[in-house]
Amino acid sequence: SKYTVVDQETCIACGACGAAAPEIFDYNDEGVAFVILDENEGTAEVAEGLFDDLDDAVEGCPTDSIKVETSPFKVLVD
Ligand code: SF4
């Protein structure tokens, strides 16, 4: 299983991840990325068919802001 979340503290709103994986990543009003699947909580399992896109996004992120784990992330508290 894979779960993903964007570290919005380090994301520089470059737009690469949404191009690589448009079904996983979108951007807020400031262009900062978030995971569409679960509002960037990292608790929704990424479908296997999206693993290649996810890998591309991780590799293409210039700030290493896309985190991937094999179990759900703890919900980030704002
Ligand atoms: Fe942010 Fe990385 Fe996505 Fe660029 S590729 S928008 S830095 S998460």
UniProtKB/TrEMBL annotation:
<dbReference type="InterPro" id="IPR001080">
    <property type="entry name" value="3Fe4S_ferredoxin"/>
</dbReference>
<comment type="function">
    <text>Ferredoxins are iron-sulfur proteins that transfer electrons in a wide variety of metabolic reactions.</text>
</comment>
<dbReference type="Pfam" id="PF13370">
    <property type="entry name" value="Fer4_13"/>
</dbReference>
<dbReference type="GO" id="GO:0009055">
    <property type="term" value="F:electron transfer activity"/>
</dbReference>
<dbReference type="GO" id="GO:0005506">
    <property type="term" value="F:iron ion binding"/>
</dbReference>
<keyword id="KW-0249">Electron transport</keyword>
<keyword id="KW-0004">4Fe-4S</keyword>
<keyword id="KW-0411">Iron-sulfur</keyword>
<protein>
    <recommendedName>
        <fullName>Ferredoxin</fullName>
    </recommendedName>
</protein>
<keyword id="KW-0408">Iron</keyword>
<feature type="domain" description="4Fe-4S ferredoxin-type">
    <location>
        <begin position="2"/>
        <end position="30"/>
    </location>
</feature>
<dbReference type="InterPro" id="IPR052395">
    <property type="entry name" value="ET_Ferredoxin"/>
</dbReference>
<keyword id="KW-0479">Metal-binding</keyword>
<dbReference type="InterPro" id="IPR017896">
    <property type="entry name" value="4Fe4S_Fe-S-bd"/>
</dbReference>
<keyword id="KW-0813">Transport</keyword>
<dbReference type="GO" id="GO:0051539">
    <property type="term" value="F:4 iron, 4 sulfur cluster binding"/>
</dbReference>
